[in-house]
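Researcher: Let's do a round of design. I'm pasting the structure tokens now; please hold your answer until I've finished.
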């Protein structure tokens, strides 16, 4: 509506007949002004701008005010305006413009004294905006807009459209459509447009979008929404990801980037005359690169559901053996007529005209555990053997078996122990608990005999014989056996043990559990490169030892020897075994096998010895010897791990958690508390306190059953954006000083070069400037002149002998000579009433000085030294004594007399 071109006042000249207009022009103007009056509006003004006045020299009102001197008295209270100033009163006929809405109107009449102007109707003025007069430059704020009643009747139907309605009527629209929203919406908000789009807010109720719309309208600020359930601990909530990979090396173009295969389909083409190589394709999801043996190897991560066909490697996958005819056969027996290099191709995603060709490489695929060994820990490295064709693979232990403790081995029996003494178990970092054990046998016991026929044996139910050994019955209270009452559970590594005893000491025991730490799963960290033959995988040996004679050093070689002999009992003159045919088995010389390895470490609390680079096989019961320390020990167990592998082209990675969700060890996760950490709570972070918006939020967009929390974020209205080209201060455009300043800071050199007056450099002009324009800091200029420390030596031609050393005297000190100190010793250091406080201890602190750098400079002087002429920095104490002389004035008329053999002159007063 606003400035309606169809207003009647604009149509009068076209509606009246031409003869009336020509004969009665005043009538035409009257009718036009009449309808203009009907179409007018009244604007009530507030905050009317100060008008520039003519200032008086007196201290009265500060301007000239009229007092109804004209005929009608209408100028009473008006002011005389400075015609040369910039601001005045609104005047009839000028155009006023709203500074917010941009709407205009013509002033039909003005009554500024009463805070009113009458203008041509324009309903799009906004209450509260400032209007400016185009001619008078006067300013004021619209307090209220009120159209002429006739104008209101004419436009009544259009007022129901928010675009054409009065700004004062917006309150009615708000009460109808924005009832749940607060009244104090942001001043920069287009309230009419917001009202028209309010259904978007209501439809998005309970979503992040609704919160953003709400706070943008309220504070002109985009909130941050946080859901506490994102950090709530849930069982099995982690995201486990397994990638499917294919390793390739670039063939052509030689300068191509294999990373540009991302998102593209790679294809393995059928090779003519080769029935093995079939068509295969896949879509590349991502690419990583690594330099291996000087070659760039690219790992293509493929989209698993896009893989079709079988990819072969360029090193001969699918080729089996040749028979006697020289024909190459597949493992199925089919003949291969021609072996051709296998290539894959894909279009460069940055240049559709470039085709990238790569050779497929074989890698380690699956890893199978043949023997899991014992006493391994997570992330232990495994060794790849028989890897003559491939490189760079890495396999580590992923999980190990958790089990119970089987037995407790007595390494040293000690003394003073009693049956029933408890075993103290330290389960730190073992993942297990529950082990309970007690001392069950002391002072010896029964040993099993393998063969005996004498009488008096103790027979077990199994028929084995127990015989009491004499040397085990010493009554020392030494521990013979420890009984495991309960082996506990969950142990992935062995605990350390001590014995709780009142009087026992010296015993050493350690747990045994050969199922603990057995490898149950491995993780392939890198599948390697060009493995044509499947390698085997072995590991370090974790063995327990006893009968230790010392401590093995890490890095030393240990050796054990296994002998294979036939032991015979003497039955006649020769040790022979007779076969059924009476042929003899001759006793051969003992066969031996030597096993070696390198010590990694020894855990003295569990007696687990880790050995790497093992050649041969360690056998329990053997003795090992250290090559450096000479330490020996007996092997209690020696369970090495053994694994096998397969090779292929496309393999699946071991996988891993891509998030920490569900990890009980994760410190950022919280247990559900049904208040803050729950599924039905959310946090709004804005720059205002929740007390200012909680109620309005709940009425407008808050979903039922949810709990809302508020956090205040630091907010600033300062524009920290860097300006380019100019800086604007108080609407005045300044030169490019800011840009020039930052250009100088970031482009010019800021430095200081040090130098001295005699090092061949010259002081640069402007060297004290903090930042300079581009200059060359050459080697022949300096910015700062350094001062130099000088040592001054005062030499003399006189030489003196001081404490047996001939020194040349120096006279840099102003104190007395040593000979002077000696001469005044009886007075300056007198111990009578005139004592100066100087003692022999003080003299002892005096040092010889002034002799240069040669001895005895700095030494303590002797009494002989005090007779020399050497200077010292020691000060002799002095004292001034006041003497009062009393004379008889009548008998004393001399102006000069003698006193104590000295002539004294007096002034007689």
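Researcher: That's everything. Go ahead.
Model: Designed sequence:
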């Amino acid at each position: 509506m606003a400035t309606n071109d169809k207003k009647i006042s604009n149509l009068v000249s076209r509606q009246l007949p031409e003869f009336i207009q020509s004969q009665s022009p005043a009538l035409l103007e009257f009718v036009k002004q009449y309808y203009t009056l009907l179409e007018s509006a009244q604007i009530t003004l507030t905050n009317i701008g100060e008008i520039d006045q003519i200032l008086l020299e007196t201290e009265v009102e500060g301007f000239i005010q009229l007092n109804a001197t004209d005929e009608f008295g209408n100028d009473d209270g008006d002011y005389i305006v400075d015609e040369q100033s910039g601001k005045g009163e609104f005047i009839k006929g000028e155009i006023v413009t709203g500074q917010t809405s941009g709407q205009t109107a013509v002033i039909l009449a003005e009554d500024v004294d009463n805070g009113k102007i009458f203008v041509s109707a324009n309903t799009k003025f906004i209450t509260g905006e400032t209007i400016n007069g185009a001619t008078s430059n006067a300013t004021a704020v619209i307090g209220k807009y009120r159209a002429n009643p006739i104008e209101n009747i004419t436009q009544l139907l259009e007022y129901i459209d928010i675009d054409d309605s009065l700004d004062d009527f917006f309150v009615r629209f708000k009460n109808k459509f924005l009832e749940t929203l607060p009244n104090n919406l942001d001043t920069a908000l287009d309230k009419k447009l917001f009202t028209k789009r309010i259904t978007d807010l209501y439809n998005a109720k309970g979503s992040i979008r609704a919160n953003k719309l709400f706070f943008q309208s309220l504070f002109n600020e985009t909130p941050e929404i946080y859901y506490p359930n994102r950090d709530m601990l849930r069982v099995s909530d982690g995201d486990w990801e397994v990638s499917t990979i294919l390793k390739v090396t670039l063939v052509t173009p030689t300068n191509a980037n294999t990373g540009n295969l991302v998102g593209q389909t790679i294809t393995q083409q059928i090779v003519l005359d080769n029935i093995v190589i079939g068509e295969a394709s896949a879509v590349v999801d991502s690419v990583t690169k690594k330099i291996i043996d000087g070659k760039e190897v690219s790992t293509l991560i493929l989209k698993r559901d896009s893989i079709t066909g079988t990819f072969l490697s360029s090193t001969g996958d699918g080729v089996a053996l040749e028979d006697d005819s020289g024909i190459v056969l597949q493992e199925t027996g089919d003949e291969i007529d021609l072996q051709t290099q296998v290539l894959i191709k894909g279009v460069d995603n940055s240049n559709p005209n470039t085709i990238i060709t790569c050779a497929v490489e074989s890698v380690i695929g699956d890893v199978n555990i043949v023997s899991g060994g014992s006493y391994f820990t997570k992330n232990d490295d495994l060794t790849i053997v028989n890897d003559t064709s491939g490189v760079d693979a890495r396999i580590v232990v992923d999980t190990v078996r958790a089990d119970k403790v089987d037995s407790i081995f007595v390494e040293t029996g000690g003394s003073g122990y009693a049956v029933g003494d408890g075993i103290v178990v330290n389960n730190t970092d073992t993942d297990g608990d529950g082990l309970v054990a007690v001392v069950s046998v002391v002072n010896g016991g029964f040993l099993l005999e393998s063969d005996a026929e004498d009488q008096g044996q103790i027979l077990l139910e199994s028929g084995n014989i127990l015989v009491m050994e004499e040397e085990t019955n010493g009554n020392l209270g030494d521990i013979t056996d420890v009984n495991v009452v309960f082996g506990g559970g969950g142990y992935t590594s062995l605990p350390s043990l001590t014995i709780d005893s009142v009087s026992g000491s010296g015993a050493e025991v350690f747990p045994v559990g050969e199922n603990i730490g057995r490898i149950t799963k491995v993780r392939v960290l890198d599948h390697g490169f060009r493995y044509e033959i499947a390698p085997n995988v072995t590991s370090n040996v974790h063995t327990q030892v006893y009968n230790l004679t010392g401590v093995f050093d890490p890095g030393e070689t240990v050796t054990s020897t296994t002998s294979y002999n036939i032991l015979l009992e003497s039955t006649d003159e020769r040790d022979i075994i007779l076969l059924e045919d009476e042929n003899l088995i001759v006793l051969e010389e003992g066969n031996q096998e030597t096993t070696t390895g390198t010590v990694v470490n020894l855990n003295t609390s569990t007696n687990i010895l880790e050995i790497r680079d093992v050649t041969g096989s360690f056998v329990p019961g053997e003795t090992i010897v250290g090559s450096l320390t000479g330490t020996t020990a007996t092997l209690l167990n020696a369970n090495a791990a053994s694994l096998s592998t397969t090779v292929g082209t496309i393999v699946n990675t071991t996988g891993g958690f891509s998030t920490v969700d569900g990890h009980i060890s994760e410190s950022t996760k919280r247990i559900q508390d049904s208040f803050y950490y729950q599924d039905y709570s959310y946090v709004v972070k804005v720059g205002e306190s929740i007390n200012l918006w909680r109620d309005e939020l709940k009425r407008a967009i808050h979903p039922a059953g949810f709990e809302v929390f508020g956090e205040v974020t630091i907010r600033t209205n300062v524009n920290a954006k860097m300006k380019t080209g100019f800086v604007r201060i108080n609407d005045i455009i300044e030169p490019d000083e800011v840009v020039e300043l930052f250009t100088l800071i970031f482009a010019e050199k800021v430095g200081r070069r040090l130098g001295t007056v005699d090092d061949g450099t010259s002081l640069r002009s402007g060297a004290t400037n903090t930042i300079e324009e581009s200059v060359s800091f050459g080697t022949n200029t300096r910015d700062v002149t350094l001062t130099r420390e000088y040592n001054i030596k005062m030499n003399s031609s006189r030489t003196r002998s001081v404490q047996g050393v001939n020194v040349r005297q120096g006279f840099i000190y102003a104190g007395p000579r040593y000979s002077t100190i000696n001469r005044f010793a009886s007075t300056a250091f007198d111990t009578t009433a005139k004592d100066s406080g100087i003692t022999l201890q003080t003299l002892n602190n005096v040092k010889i000085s002034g002799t240069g750098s040669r001895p005895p400079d700095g030494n303590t002087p002797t009494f002989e030294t005090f007779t020399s002429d050497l200077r010292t920095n020691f000060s002799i104490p002095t004292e001034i004594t006041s003497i009062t002389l009393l004379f008889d004035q009548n008998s004393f008329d001399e102006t000069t007399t003698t006193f104590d053999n000295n002539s004294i002159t007096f002034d007689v007063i």
